[in-house]
């Protein structure tokens, strides 16, 4: 895809002379480092036609003046951005990249400098690999050994936690050993899964498309977080073979420099970044490598108080002050993950939650499995990661598996050896949000899960309680726990659009994954119900147009969904089965009218004016009738919008999360009955109650 740029006389991507490239770096005091980098550009990048962009993150005036004085004789185009404060690495890069005027950016830390001009080779390597992101190798100050030469994301188990870390490639090797190691002709650029943000080239359009760096990370871990984003979205990361950059971070010589270094390598700041990412992704980030890296930098800087800083990785007493609950989700960015984050947000002061996204973890494990020539077991769809999750959650008070189908893997060869240690006797919980597997054959297949593996389960909505209470082979649900909606995130916007709706096309919205369980049938109703209805009404002359948020076609991040709802006029829910459904909650919170099948929580959510738009039957004719009625009365859009904003107030996640507390406490009591107050001891919990015993 990069080769499409080849029509340009100066070649693809960055241009042979860098005319489509901006070299960008952050500065924060230590002007001597920035000047050294600028001087190396001046000396080695002869005939450079791009631009140099310096983003100052709040240096003192004297330090900025040094850089400005040097730039007076700088031969190439340059700009300097002076921020009003220190926005950190992620925030600083985001603000700098927003000012870039070329299609590509070379992002460098200012403790790096050039030794030669390799722009032509970078251009070739980008075109050869066809990637939008590339890491640049770094030499150590001796220029004889490698500081870094590409890296991969790697998941490991450390201290019982699933950690995501960086596995470097060839770092520390002498350059001659590197040449011998690659003398078989493998010096070509290669693909990896980690992007060194401080020494990289990236395509600006794609960077912004992916949402940029996470501004919530002040400093530390921004690169691993962005690399994980690239991995999940399927983007390639290349590494060039060229060794033309030197990384040299000298010891601070002045008081100002020392303050900068202490801010950069602050344990507390790095720890807070790690904890934020742990809550966001479900992986652990703080570990031995981080501690060793911090200690090494403290040693280099000659700080005598390094040993006095609190060891943040040792969370001993606090770690067990609250009951520990592991929440095993399918992915990190869909419905179950959203529930998990809401529980952590509102109940985190009472329980220590750990969110583990199985499918995302499995994708990283799959890469490693493929690299070992498919040695051992690997199960698609998160199954391979289930064993890792069980290992990582040993000692947790409760392990809640949202997607109960993962529990079916326990009887497979993959987890046969794990069961005695990691399943038997543990408090395992699950949930039911759908109407799948309630036929007699399916019930027989899953009877073991409900009677011997889990300690309890809950359902949503209340319809499912009646269904599962009627299944003789299963124990009764322990609770009905409905979803809520984040009323801080999902709120009304652009409601004036309903005032002039009679004179324009009406945007018909739908949210979800149209391909969900499509091998069985069209449960979501998009292809067999919604689209045919819409096409027939359009043929009749109704001014309707589809505006779907179908994850099968494109993914919209959760935090951007309010913008989507602000652009539709009515949300359609055509599902045959639903637990909630969450899009209905979110749409109502944004003041959007809804037309829905009688599924999930819809009957409990709808007010007096909305209820006539709950379909009497799931059919094309019924859906068309509801859409006609709404379009025929333009004033109804604003009326339904206002009613929904009132109806949704009772479904705030703040209140819904509290309803999980009795459920968790019931599970904890089961554990205490057999373990006392020792929350780390694993022992057998006989949970073989029959349906009839439950009813006595």
Describe the largest sheet. Answer: 8 strands, mixed
Number of helices: 26
Number of domains: 3
- Uncertain regions spanning at least 5 consecutive residues: 1-5, 180-185, 304-320, 677-696
Termini separation comes to 67 Å
Side by side, the strands of the main sheet go 3-2-1-4-12-6-13-11
- How many β strands by DSSP? 24
The structural class is alpha/beta
What's the overall average pLDDT, rounded?
82
Strand content: 15-25%
**Which topology of the largest domain does CATH recognise?**
Spore Coat Polysaccharide Biosynthesis Protein SpsA, Chain A
User: What is the CATH architecture descriptor of the largest domain?
Assistant: Alpha-Beta Complex
Looking at this protein, list some descriptive labels.
single chain; 696 residues; alpha/beta; Spore Coat Polysaccharide Biosynthesis Protein SpsA, Chain A; Rossmann fold; 3 domains; eight-stranded mixed beta sheet; six-stranded parallel beta sheet; 24 strands; globular; disordered C terminus; Glycosyltransferase involved in cell wall bisynthesis
């Amino acid at each position: 895809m990069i080769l499409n740029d080849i029509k340009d006389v100066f070649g693809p991507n960055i241009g042979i002379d860098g005319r489509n490239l901006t070299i960008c770096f952050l500065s924060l005091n230590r002007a001597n480092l920035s000047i050294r980098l600028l001087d190396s550009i001046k000396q080695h990048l002869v005939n450079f036609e791009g631009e140099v962009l310096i983003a100052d993150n709040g240096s003192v005036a004297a330090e900025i003046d040094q850089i400005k004085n040097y730039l007076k004789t700088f031969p190439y185009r340059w700009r300097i951005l002076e921020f009003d404060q220190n926005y950190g690495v992620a925030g600083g890069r985001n603000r700098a990249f927003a000012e870039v005027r070329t299609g590509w950016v070379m992002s460098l830390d200012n403790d790096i400098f050039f030794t030669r001009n390799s722009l032509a080779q970078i251009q070739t390597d980008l075109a050869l690999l066809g990637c939008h992101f590339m890491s640049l190798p770094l030499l150590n100050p001796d220029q004889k050994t490698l500081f870094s030469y590409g890296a991969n994301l790697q998941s490991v188990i450390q201290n019982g936690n699933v950690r995501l870390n960086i596995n470097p490639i060839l770092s520390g090797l002498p350059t001659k050993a590197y040449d011998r190691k690659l003398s078989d002709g493998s010096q070509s650029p290669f693909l990896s899964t980690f992007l060194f943000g401080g020494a990289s080239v990236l395509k600006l359009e794609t960077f912004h498309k992916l949402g940029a760096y996470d501004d919530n990370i002040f400093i530390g871990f921004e690169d691993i977080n962005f690399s994980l984003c690239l991995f999940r979205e399927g983007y390639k990361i290349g590494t060039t073979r060229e060794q033309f950059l030197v990384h040299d971070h000298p010891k601070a010589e002045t008081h100002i420099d020392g303050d900068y270094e202490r801010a950069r390598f602050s344990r507390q700041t790095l720890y807070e970044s790690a904890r934020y990412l742990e809550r966001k992704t479900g992986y652990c980030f703080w570990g031995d490598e981080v501690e060793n890296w911090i200690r090494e930098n403290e040693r280099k800087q000659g700080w005598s108080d390094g040993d006095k800083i609190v060891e943040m990785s040792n969370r001993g007493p606090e770690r067990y002050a609250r009951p520990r609950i592991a929440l095993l989700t399918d992915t990190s960015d869909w419905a179950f993950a959203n529930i998990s984050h809401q529980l952590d947000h509102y109940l985190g002061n009472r329980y220590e939650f750990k969110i583990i996204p199985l499918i995302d973890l499995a994708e990283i494990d799959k890469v490693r499995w493929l690299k070992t020539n498919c040695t051992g077991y690997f199960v698609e769809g998160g199954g391979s990661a289930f064993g890792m999750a069980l290992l990582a959650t040993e000692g947790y008070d409760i392990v809640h598996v949202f997607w109960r189908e993962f529990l079916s893997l326990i009887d497979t060869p993959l987890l046969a050896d794990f069961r005695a240690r990691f399943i038997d006797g543990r408090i395992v919980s699950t949930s039911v949000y759908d109407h799948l597997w309630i036929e007699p054959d399916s019930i027989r297949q899953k009877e073991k899960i409900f009677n011997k593996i889990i300690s309890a389960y809950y359902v949503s909505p209340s319809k499912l309680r009646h269904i599962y209470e009627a299944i003789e082979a299963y124990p009764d649900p322990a609770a009905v726990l409905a979803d809520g909606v984040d009323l801080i995130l999902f709120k009304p916007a652009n409601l004036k659009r309903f005032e002039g709706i009679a004179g324009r096309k009406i945007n018909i919205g739908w949210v979800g994954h149209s391909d969900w369980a499509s091998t069985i049938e069209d449960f979501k109703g998009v292809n067999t119900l919604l689209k045919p209805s819409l096409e027939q009404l359009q043929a009749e002359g109704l001014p309707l147009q589809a505006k779907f948020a179908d994850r099968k076609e494109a993914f919209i991040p959760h935090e951007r969904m309010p913008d989507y709802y602000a652009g539709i006029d009515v949300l359609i829910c055509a599902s045959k089965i639903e637990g909630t459904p969450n899009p209905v909650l979110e749409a109502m919170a944004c003041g959007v009218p809804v037309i829905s099948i009688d599924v999930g929580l819809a009957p409990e959510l709808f007010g007096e004016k909305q209820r006539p738009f709950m379909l009497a039957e799931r059919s094309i004719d019924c859906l068309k009738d509801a859409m006609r009625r709404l379009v025929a009365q333009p004033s109804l859009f604003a009326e339904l919008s206002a009613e929904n904003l009132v109806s949704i107030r009772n479904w705030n996640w703040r209140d819904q999360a509290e309803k999980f507390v009795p459920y968790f406490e019931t599970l904890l009591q089961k554990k205490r009955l057999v373990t006392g107050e020792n929350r780390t001891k694993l022992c057998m919990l006989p949970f073989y109650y029959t349906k009839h015993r439950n009813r006595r």
